[in-house]
Specification:
2 copies of one chain form a homodimer. With 225 residues, chain A is α+β, with helices and mostly antiparallel strands. Chain A folds into 2 domains: 93 residues, Winged helix-like DNA-binding domain superfamily/Winged helix DNA-binding domain (Arc Repressor Mutant, subunit A); 118 residues, no CATH class. Chain A has 10 helices and 11 strands. In chain A, the strands form 5 sheets. In chain A, strands 1-3-2 form a 3-stranded antiparallel beta sheet. A two-stranded antiparallel ribbon of chain A has the order 4-5. In chain A, a hairpin with a 6-residue loop joins strand 6 and strand 7. Chain A is elongated and about 55 Å long. Chain A binds a DNA duplex (30 and 30 nucleotides) through helix 4.
DNA sequence: TTTATGGTTCGACTATGATCGAACTATGAA
DNA sequence: TTCATAGTTCGATCATAGTCGAACCATAAA
């Protein structure tokens, strides 16, 4: 009677079509920007912002601000669990079964995350670079070591003039599908661009999938040892 | 985009405070009447009827009409599962833990279901009466056998004048907590009344719990062999 | 039959909340 | 600095949906 568990408030949050569409898109674990979510839900930026604020307030989503991009993801596993339970009722009602898209594994392996590499291979880059002391520090205070610059030069990335920009070159970004961090920021952007220019990988149109060729992935893994 | 899984419709159904209150009350598995649900949710009969129709349409509730009483219960386990998942988010948000009431086991053992005995002991009555051929038939076509009337007479229930009423004396009622049928209808009502008059059991005030005394339960089980 | 009660339907009122145009803020690039 | 873009805030509009009074239907008891 009084307040109790606010089940109705949470259900109301999920109940709006625009919001449920956003949540469903996020069900695969990705973190998407507000604009991406807006187009996924078929609404304007303003409306999306309105809804995202409510979802944040209700602790259904978490926001990670990286530059001018605001990434939204499901706040915790409980949220995903509840949505799956609701999906269970819905599919029981229609008799249909959910079929997971065939592109899902490819997305988890390598995908573009705004401008850098995410997924298993993205996490691999970060792990290997840290393990070999090419990177030091953590979070937004991550720097490339001299040893790292040597390695980067091998694939054509040169150390920029330190007088031009004092901004940190590296940032880390939590990778939902792997639950670990990968490299983003300017360095992440440069790395991905270089993978493309080296012909190691290309982006599949209309999706976020990054497809490494067999030869490209071999060179990629070789570079990281 | 088009229709997809109607997760938002289902969430909207749960999202209304009146409806979520009803659903929460039904979470223990009982089947309650529209009026009981109305008072539980703090709304009028008309409003409750409006909401219950929507919950029926959405297949969240099932209705079983017995006489002028309409009993509502959760339609299937998936519904309960989804509500529990939503409760999980809600309690995580406030940091509180749900504590299952201590009255829960007592409710499952024996409770009043409108006017007759439900719960484990209610199911036991029906099972034993069927097993000993005191009852024949099923559903709303259940009748007391001659052998049954002998047994009933032992606890003071006599066969009514068959000319007075041609209505079936017995009905069965699905017991949610046990997932099996128990005896309702006029016979169920008479039986429970007799249990009270014999001093075997009494009703705990303010709850639906029926408390059998140790001696009463022994006599009860003895009567049923 | 009459009377009482449980439940639904109808109609009108009301409030909440979703939506978008427009203006504003913040970050990044040149 | 200026320009472009991502995101939020404000304000006004509009529709949906919850609410209850009143009337109606169905069942049961007397």
């Amino acid at each position: 009677m009084k307040d109790g568990p606010d089940i109705s408030k949470i259900a109301t949050l999920i109940g709006d079509p625009a919001r449920s569409n956003m949540l469903l898109v996020l069900m695969d674990g990705r973190a998407l920007t507000a604009s991406e979510l807006a187009s996924a839900a078929g609404i304007t930026k303003q409306t999306a912002s309105f809804h995202l604020a409510r979802l944040l307030d209700g602790a259904l989503l978490a926001r990670e601000i990286q530059g001018r991009h605001h990434y939204f993801r499901l706040d915790n596993a409980d949220v995903g669990h509840a949505i799956e339970a609701l999906l269970g009722i819905a599919q029981n009602r229609t008799g249909k079964r959910t079929r997971t898209g065939p592109k899902e594994p490819a997305l988890r392996k390598a995908r573009i995350c705004y401008d850098h590499l995410a997924g298993e291979l993205g996490v691999l880059v970060y792990d290997r670079m840290c393990a070999q002391r090419w990177l030091e520090g953590a979070g937004n205070e991550t720097f490339v070591t001299p040893k790292g610059w040597v390695a980067l030069k091998r694939i054509g990335i040169t150390k920029p003039d330190p007088t031009k920009s004092r901004r940190p070159q590296c940032k880390t970004c939590l990778d939902w599908s792997a639950r670990r961090h990968h490299l983003s920021g300017v360095m992440g952007q440069h790395l991905l661009k270089q993978f493309f220019e080296l012909g190691w990988a290309q982006r599949l149109p209309k999706t976020r999938i990054i497809k490494f060729s067999n030869k490209g992935e071999a060179s990629f893994r070789n570079w990281l040892n």
